[in-house]
Amino acid sequence: AWLVAYRRAAARGFRPPTPPPTQLELDRAVAEEIDAAYRESERLDAARAAESAAREAEAAQEARRVEARAQARERALARAAATAAAVRDERLRRSAQLSPEPDAAALSDAARSICSIAVRLRDGTRIVRRFEATERVASLFAWVGGEVPAHRGCLRLASHFPRLKLAEEEESGHGRTLLEFGLSAGATLFVEEEEEEEEEEEEE
Q1: 3-class SS of residue 101
Q2: Which residues lie across from 14 on neighbouring strands?
Q3: pLDDT given at position 111
Q4: Sheet holding 114-120: strands in order across?
Q5: Is omega for the bond preceding 100 within 30 degrees of 0, making it cis?
Q6: For the chain, what percent of residues have pLDDT higher than 90?
Q7: CA nearest neighbour of 157 among 181, 131, 132
């Protein structure tokens, strides 16, 4: 009778209720949930550790780059300071080797002439010195270099009229005399600014 009733119920689509899970099945499901949660926690911890390690590695690399740049700047500054010191010492050495300034009043030879040269420095100071007209241009740079031994870069002298430019580094013309350059009595020069020269080169 039960079998017949079951078959009739099955034909109508009846399904018997699922029996409740046993305690063993419940314990197994709970254990699986705990294991899944633990694995997910481990995955998140590993991801956070990897991200933290990546940030630390990037920070360490940036610190090394900053330190390398700082060391490079220090080396560049040390080289620049050494070069500036060498240039200053060389200017002072050349200045010390200058011939004494001629005394115009003591000259009896009318054939000899004196060049009185004034130079305006970059700070506005005006310096004046007498040279014999036969002195070389190198003596002019030795004098000015001795007055401004700490001048940075190439020492450049110029005059407005007649337009004249002389550069400390261009020693090819240093053997010519002051007279050959037209630096007669009363010549006035000025120490040219580096920025002015760069602007002129751009305009050309």
Answers
A1: coil
A2: none
A3: 44
A4: 126-132, 114-120, 188-191, 156-159, 164-167
A5: no
A6: 41
A7: 181
Residue 169 structure tokens:
């580094």
Cα 115 from Cα 154, distance rounded (Å): 24
pLDDT score of 171:
66
Determine the Cα–Cα distance for residues 78 and 81; give it in Å rounded to an integer: 5
In this prediction, the residues of the chain whose per-residue pLDDT falls under 70 are 1-7, 9-10, 12-18, 104-112, 162, 171-173, 184-186, 193-204
Inter-residue contact 132 to 114 (CB < 8 Å): yes
| Whole-number Å distance between alpha carbons of 195 and 144 | 20
Give the ranges where the chain is alpha helix by DSSP (H). 2-11, 23-96, 137-147, 194-203
Unique residue bearing structure tokens 């500036």:
84
Give the separation between CA 164 and CA 10, rounded to whole angstroms: 119
pLDDT confidence of residue 152: 85
What pLDDT is recorded for position 181? 81
The whole-number pLDDT of residue 24 equals 85
Range 56-64, long-range pairs (CB < 8 A, 24+ positions): none
Residue 105: exposure state from Cβ atoms within 10 A (0-12, 13-18, ≥19): exposed
DSSP-assigned states of every residue in 48-95: HHHHHHHHHHHHHHHHHHHHHHHHHHHHHHHHHHHHHHHHHHHHHHHH
